[in-house]
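Render this sequence as a predicted structure.
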Amino acid sequence: MRGQEMLDFTHAVVVHPEGMTPTERKAVDLLVDEVAKRTRLRWQTTTVMPTKGAVIAIRRASEPVGAGAREGFRLHLTKEGERVIVLVLGNDERGVLFGVGRLLRWLRMSRDRVRLPSPLDIVTAPQYPLRGHQLGYRPKTNSYDGDERLRALDALINWTNPGPGGFYDNLGDLTQQPHLVAGKGFEEDPEFRETPLMGAVFFPDGRTSWWSYAQSLYDAPLRLRYTDLDPSASYKLRVVYAGDNFRVKIRCVANDTIEIHPFISKPFPIRPLEFDIPQEATRTGTLELSWYREPGLGGNGRGCQVAEVWLIVSNPAR
């Protein structure tokens, strides 16, 4: 981020009070687990405030933040001697949880590295206090249809299943992105101009797999490469575009020459999109998919941000 100091939180320690509620404990675990997924770093947690280094302190606010609204929270960065402390203060236990979600959105994470833009002072509350999922809900009769509920449950259970001969990547999880082209890496490319990096945004009404994503910066492509495909089968692409910038359009190309879709706006609310892949793109048994944001925009370079990708066999070979 231009105009902001980037603080090193790679070896941060998470401090929390004793006697947390289950929801507050979940917030701490969520932060540690999500950072580990994106960076391979597992932060230490403790109830004792360290005397130096980067600290993330998570607790209830001693005084109401903002207007004292339910689920409200504050993120505040302060420096005390040799310590750099991020305070995550919630008006209630759900405020603590939403505060952690917003912090995940603020952190800049990549493999083996975490940075935090400074300054930081956010006070807010969710717009809607009621959240959750309803399966097969029929608003006209306020009832549930059995078939609709079964279809919804099947979609939840088999969400990541690409079907026979297909492939799935959760690009926001370092352990579930086997087809992501890694690029040069931090040592050769410290500005990540030719290396994908992880990002995170908290969407309380969406799937947790949409909270994190892989992204490329500026005009560099984000690439996935597949091998050992069936040359005689037909495939389709299912993709979820996520991120923190839905104003920038995104384009997908196969093998650098075959357009899968032109520059389009990423849908919001977030939802999966599907596109047919011309058979000429997979007839050699290999496929490289590349995503680009609109060229020449400058700014912070973000916008080419992809959360989930399925490569699905739409017409198996006979």
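Summary. The mean pLDDT is 86. Helices lie at 22-39, 93-106, 146-157.
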